[in-house]
Amino acid sequence: MSLLLKKHIREIIPALSDQEFEYVMRHFVPVKRQKHQFLIQADDEVKSNYWVVKGCLKLYCLDDDGKEHILQFAMENWWVSDYIALYSRGKSEFYISCIEDSELLSITMDNIDKLCSEMHAMEHFWNVKKRFGYVALQKRIVSLLKNSAEERYNQLLEQYPQLLQRVPKKMIASYLGVSRETLSRFNAGQDVM
Q1: How confident is the model over 16-54, as pLDDT tens digits?
Q2: Running DSSP on this structure, what letter comes out for residue 55?
Q3: CA–CA dist 46, 122 (Å, integer)
Q4: CATH for 2-117, among 2.40.128.600, 3.40.50.300, 2.120.10.30, 2.60.120.10?
Q5: Which of 45, 98, 103, 132 could potentially form a cystine with 53 if both were Cys, beta carbons 3.0 to 4.6 Å apart?
Q6: Domain named Cyclic nucleotide-binding: which ranges (predicted)?
């Protein structure tokens, strides 16, 4: 696990020494969850950010009718948490559950703050990760506002083809904001091409 995280961090901070990385690694805790288990549930106090070492997860909310609305998937090398609750130190409005058996590395917000105050390089790392997250969020919102459902599906297929191999179609439909039947029509159109 630690070698994968080291590679991930060094993509942004190539000069991070082995000794510095060992210090950083002491602030992470390994977490394992089985398929269908929750990482976070609504009303949980959220204290940690999670980096996916292995597996696939979904972040979602439920509407008043109990319908699931998926906001994010998280696969290997991705970060996931309820960032509203994490940054406000509040309780979650979301659920994060495992689509597959998953292994993660967890770091508390307190430890992120500690590392940022002690190491400029780690402060830079977290700032870059936040920027990437904001950009991805804005792109998703713009896509939901401007693109047709079929365009959103094709964009997802192009950006994350491996995701469509790992996630049930029902969940893909929820993420795209379409019915399962609509998604099936897109798939039928792909088969013809």
Answers
A1: 999 999 999 999 999 999 999 999 999 999 999 999 999
A2: S
A3: 21
A4: 2.60.120.10
A5: 103
A6: 33-117
Pairing of strands 29-33, 102-108: antiparallel
Q: Which two tokens stand for residue 46?
A: 């959220």
CA distance 62 to 97: 13
pLDDT digits (tens, 9 = 90+) for 116-149: 999 999 999 999 999 999 999 999 999 999 999 8
Q: Are 132 and 80 in contact (CB under 8 A)?
A: no
Q: Please tell me the distance from the alpha carbon of residue 31 to that of residue 105, in angstroms, as a whole number.
A: 6
